[in-house]
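Chapter review: from sequence to fold.
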Amino acid sequence: MKFFVDTADIAAIKELNDLGMVDGVTTNPSLILKSGRAIAEVTAEICAMVEGPVSAEVVAEKADDMIAEGRHLAKIAPNVCIKVPLTWDGLKACRVLSDEGHKLNVTLCFSPAQAILAAKAGATFISPFIGRLDDIHLDGMDLIADIREIYDNYGYETEILAASIRTVNHIVDAAKIGADVITAPPSVIKLMANHILTDKGLAQFNADWAQTGQKIL
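The token string follows.
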């Protein structure tokens, strides 16, 4: 499973990237706003740091305008992945930009039917939103499982990029189902290292070591 980091925070990306934990980055208008920086500037800096795809999202609503914005964003760096919404116009833009050789991340997917259309339109990645489905009392993991089954049935090459990750369990469950990629905030990825028994065991080891009166260095 590939790990994408869902942030435009350069310091947070660098910390995880230095550990080999970053296969790509996803951004959106909300994350750009949070960064307080110009989209072209921050995207270029992320692309220079990370080898994998960096999603930069269009904000237009009509296909022709999305295509123009997508082409403009793609000029920022070779590893920019153009992000478009899963609307009919977004699918039109996906088809055109994909045929031009660009990578496409089709976002805001909430149904298997939408995921089929994205694959047919040439999406590189489909981004089903787990947490937002959970918010309305649906199981976001059911969507991941449905898309995985459908894509496997027909050999679609579009990668399932599990998004709207809120918890460590979301990551583990997506991995068990077979999502190709997860994108999560840095804080959630770092929480994967935590376990109460690890903390308890380390405390015991440290207490016992102190009693030996030894030093390693």
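Two observations follow directly from the output. Residues 169 and 192 are 9 Å apart (CA to CA). The radius of gyration is 20 Å.
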